[in-house]
Write a structure and sequence with these properties.
Blueprint (H helix, E strand, L loop, with lengths): L19 H6 L23 H13 L6 H13 L6 H19 L5 H33 L3 H12 L3 H11 L3 H28 L4 H11 L3 H11 L1 H15 L2 H11 L12 H14 L7 H22 L2 H6 L2 H25 L1
């Protein structure tokens, strides 16, 4: 039934719609989580205090006052207290930043010096890789660890830490647990080495060349090798970086051998192509005089990138990650690390 116009009940007055400009300026809080209701925003983004803390520490790492060990310590402090609010974002960024930083360091190195250093470190490399893998096999069996965990930790100790584990793991078809345990083990030892190696080197009065060679052999990851050597001196940095990257090339034959040993067919080998970029940068710095003025700038940026990389690595080592490993993988890692460190140091000191 249709009511006459006079009998239709009056409707409450409605406010006129806001003009388009007012709608654009008004903050939209309808879709925010409850804990962000009423929070002030910056360019439509409401940063949490954890994100602010991360940003402040990151900015400090870009300053001349932040050395690689300091940056790593700040990252660890963040991870163990408030936590890393950008863990998922920096996980993929960290290896790329490290690779570009290593390439940048090549613009401060001389190819003739690098070849000499690489030749001297070749014998140490071959002997230490074979010995570490063999020792890891027997210690791992004694500890009752799975063969994948044993092999990954041994490869990480023998060659170049996380990069070797990331390359060899898929070849073995290792599961996520084995990969995580192995990576966490070598990362913890990297942290210890970065802080302890420079004081030990000074206490033993190691030369720049001796310390650089020792770092390249006894410290797992390239980032910690470069960080410790940079804290010791420029010559140590050149020797350590060159020998470590030459050592990293052993990822290729070790990966091939791993595929044969574990009877894995059709697996792709992950080649560290950034080493070619480092060699190219070193050749440009040595043989292209026009590039000389650019070298110090690129090296400076590379050192900043390395510092930020170590901050990211420290921020990724949360207490949960450290506790999830258990004691036996740490025992294996420590035993291998002590044997390699002490053995290589003895040979270096005897060689003079």
């Amino acid at each position: 039934m249709v009511l006459p116009t006079s009998q239709i009940p009056p409707q409450p007055p409605t406010s006129a719609p806001a003009p388009p400009s007012a709608q654009l300026l008004a903050p939209d809080t309808t879709n925010r989580p409850p804990h962000q209701q009423g929070k002030q925003t910056v360019f439509a983004w409401a940063p949490t205090w954890r994100q602010v803390a991360f940003g402040v520490l990151l900015l400090f790492c870009l300053t001349p006052w932040a050395s690689p060990p300091v940056a790593l310590a700040l990252g660890l402090l963040l991870a163990q207290t408030v936590g890393n609010p950008f863990a998922s974002h920096i996980k993929s960024l960290t290896p790329k930043l490290l690779q570009f930083s290593v390439i940048g360091l090549g613009f401060g190195m001389n190819a003739h010096v690098a070849v000499q250093a690489g030749q001297q470190g070749l014998l140490f490399t071959v002997a230490s890789i074979g010995g570490t893998l063999l020792l890891g096999y027997f210690v791992g069996r004694w500890l009752g660890l799975s063969r994948h965990v044993v092999y990954l930790i041994s490869c990480g100790t023998a060659i170049c830490g996380g990069s070797a584990i990331a390359a060899v793991g898929p070849v073995l078809r290792a599961n996520d647990e084995a990969m995580s345990v192995s990576l966490a083990t070598v990362f913890v030892l990297n942290v210890i080495a970065l802080f302890t190696f420079p004081p030990i080197g000074h206490a033993l009065h190691l030369t720049q060349h001796q310390f650089g060679l020792w770092c390249a052999i006894a410290i797992h990851d390239t980032s910690s090798v470069v960080g410790a050597a940079a804290a010791y001196g420029n010559e140590a940095l050149q020797v350590a970086t060159t020998v470590k990257l030459a050592r990293a090339l052993w990822i290729i034959p070790v990966s091939v051998g791993s595929a044969l040993l574990f009877k894995q067919k059709g697996m792709k080998i992950k080649i560290p192509y950034f080493i070619l970029g480092f060699v190219g940068a070193m050749l440009v710095n040595t043989f292209v005089p026009a590039a000389k003025p650019l070298g110090p700038v690129l090296v400076g940026l590379a050192k900043i990138g390395l510092t930020v990389t170590l901050f990211f690595i420290g921020a990724a080592l949360s207490g949960r990650v450290l506790k999830s490993v258990g004691s036996r993988p740490y025992v294996l890692g420590v035993v291998l690390w002590i044997v390699v460190s002490a053995g290589s140091l003895y040979v270096i000191l005897r060689a003079g």
